[in-house]
Design a protein that fits this description.
Elements: E1 4-25, H1 28-37, H2 40-46, H3 50-53, H4 64-72, H5 76-83, H6 93-110, E2 123-141, H7 142-149, H8 154-167, H9 174-181, H10 186-193, H11 202-217, H12 221-229, H13 233-241, H14 247-256, H15 263-276
Antiparallel strand pairs: 1-2
Pfam families: DUF5752
InterPro entries: DUF5752
Length: 277
């Protein structure tokens, strides 16, 4: 028998209102000053928010600071060091900000030559304000939770798995907190806590959620989705097949709306490309 939560899970989503500040950087020193002084909302916009939208980029997520330094200023070594600082691995904006500043300070101490950005390519600091909205979807037990996971948008997934934890300084993602505290399912909560948004796209994470939940329900993921979420059979196959799909091919699949029957050919071409390298 499934446990029923006294307090149902309320699925929320978020949208961002972006404003351009009057702060600009034309070189690494000015970028450092900006990183030290701009609001936490600006740091969040240029780093963490990238991970919500990265499926559309055609490349693994790189926050704006690392990308600008490496590709615009052409400081490849420093750009790679900055890009390697993964914002999803920090519990708060301050720690992430401090690490970026520390790396740039080390670089300036060892290499005083400062490259200037080309005209029109300055770093423009922006800020984003999140608007939180109730989706109207609720879950009172595990089956309702699974069904909702098949319905909610990627933005809602991102909000509950990552954004709320950073913005509201929570110790864990919303799903794990609710499963642990209201459904008394700590094992499921612990497995979900291990999911890394910097490794998987949000649709891949959705698929991994079904794998985790299916394991604890004793049901194969495809059967779980078919029975509880009640998606069409071809969509179930599509969802499960894309869990470990190469990201660039997955982008093409989403953008071009390639049919499910084309997936094997795409995977084969991806393997052939890797073999030729």
């Amino acid at each position: 028998m499934l446990n029923t939560a006294q307090n149902p899970f309320i699925f929320m989503t978020s949208s961002s209102l972006v404003t351009i500040t009057d702060r600009r950087a034309g070189n690494i020193k000015e970028l450092l000053e900006g990183i030290r002084e701009v609001s936490g909302s600006s740091i969040y916009h240029h780093s963490h928010q990238v991970y919500r939208e990265w499926q559309t980029f055609g490349r693994p997520p790189i926050h704006d600071f690392g990308y600008w330094v490496g590709e615009v200023i052409r400081e490849k070594g420093l750009g790679e060091r900055l890009a390697a600082v993964d914002p999803t691995q920090y519990d708060d904006i301050r720690s992430f900000r401090n690490r970026l500043a520390e790396i740039i300070e080390e670089h300036l101490a060892s290499d005083p030559i400062i490259n200037q950005a080309p005209p029109g390519s300055q770093f423009n600091f922006c800020e984003s304000t999140s608007v939180i909205l109730d989706t109207g979807t609720r879950a009172g037990n595990l089956d309702e939770f699974i069904q909702a996971l098949g319905m909610i948008t990627r933005r809602s997934l991102y909000y509950h798995l990552f954004e709320a934890r950073i913005r509201l300084h929570r110790f864990d993602n919303d799903f794990s907190i609710w499963l642990r505290e209201h459904l008394e399912a700590p094992e499921i909560a612990d497995e979900i806590s291990k999911l890394d948004i910097s490794v998987y796209s949000l649709e891949q994470i959705r698929g991994h959620l079904f794998i985790i939940l299916g394991k604890f329900r004793g049901v194969p993921p495809r059967e779980l989705v078919k029975k509880v979420v009640q998606l069409p059979a071809e969509m179930i196959e599509l969802l499960m097949d894309t869990i470990s799909y190469p990201v660039r091919s997955l982008n093409r699949f989403i953008d071009e709306k390639i049919k499910p029957e084309d997936l094997p050919d795409l995977r084969l071409r991806s393997k052939n490309k890797r073999g030729k390298k």
